[in-house]
Amino acid sequence: MTERIALVTGASSGIGRATAELLARNGYYVFAAARRMYRLEQIRSHHIEPVELDVTDEEAIHRVVGHVMSTKGRIDVLVNNAAYAQLGAIECVSMEAAHHQFEVNVFGYARFMQSVVPHMRTQKSGCIVNITSALGKMTIPGFGWYTASKHALEALSETLRGEVMEFGINVVVIAPGLIKTEFVPNQLRLLDTIAHPAAYEKLVAGAHQIVSHEPRCPGPEIIAQAVLDAITTSNPPLRHALPLDSKMAVVARWLLGPRLFEWAVRQQMKPWKP
Ligand code: NDP
């Protein structure tokens, strides 16, 4: 059987790392991409090849995809996963920080999609898995720029799917809820670097509060398993939200309508009192 080839971004930690390792254990040859090479070296094996890149560097992406094609001759799976969350009130996050959020979370994904699709089109096969978020379909005060980036990504994914399905290419969205990785600690650190006037004190406390149960959340392995299921099933769900709270968020928003849903979110942001 021909070796299956995958490229996973954001593979130096969390969901990307768990996915790279799971795919390698299941017969894939994985190109594992991120900026921190020393972290990628920890997972190097006969089936995992680390590649150093920043997803904002278009030339580096073309170089890496060129390397995949020249060494392996094909690319079966792209797992677009590298991202971070720029929290902060919309008023307070600088335009520079907002641009960078989109550079990584939207254009970073788009650069990879543009780079692999021509090869998948020639092969007449391939699967692109875009890791979005529960916040790809809803919003929370204080999460505006991140949420906007994930909404954009949901739209791009759905559009691309319609454009390339006739070439034998599948595009799948996986939308995680809270998962225990480096993601939440990093986003809280970044939030604390934003200068908020005192008027936003409650909002900043609420943003901390809403992710406060992250230490009790599932680990990245459940998302890695969802990726493996999506790329090995002939007709996977187009959007797989998990764990259950991510799925329920979409249902709840639909059932409650925008005003009641907004109220429910604000309740979640209030400090917990015994
Ligand atoms: P982590 O912070 O653990 O991992 C993020 C990865 O992205 C790292 O490997 C990091 O590698 C990489 N990355 C970040 N910026 C860049 C960049 N400019 N260029 C290249 N690589 C970059 O987070 P998760 O594993 O949790 O997140 C993975 C995905 O899951 C993201 O898309 C996130 O939005 C989504 N998600 C996560 C949730 C959670 O609760 N964990 C909830 C909802 C969605 P390095 O720094 O070495 O470059």
Protein described:
With 274 residues, this protein is of the alpha/beta class. It has one domain: NAD(P)-binding Rossmann-like Domain (Rossmann fold, 3-Layer(aba) Sandwich). Helices cover 50% and strands 15% of the residues. A 7-stranded parallel β-sheet has the order 3-2-1-4-5-6-7, with helices on both faces. Helix 2 links the parallel strand 2 and strand 3 (48-52). It is globular. The termini are far apart. The model has no long low-confidence stretch (mean pLDDT 96).
Rg calculated over all Cα atoms: 19 Å
Summed up, the domain count is: 1
Structural class: alpha/beta
Label the CATH architecture.
3-Layer(aba) Sandwich
Order of helices and strands: EHEHEHEHEHEHHHEH
CATH topology call: Rossmann fold
Based on DSSP secondary structure assignment, what is the total number of beta strands? 7
Structure keywords:
7 strands, alpha/beta, Rossmann fold, 9 helices, binds NADPH dihydro-nicotinamide-adenine-dinucleotide phosphate, 15% strand
Describe what is shown at a glance.
Helices cover 50% and strands 15% of the residues.
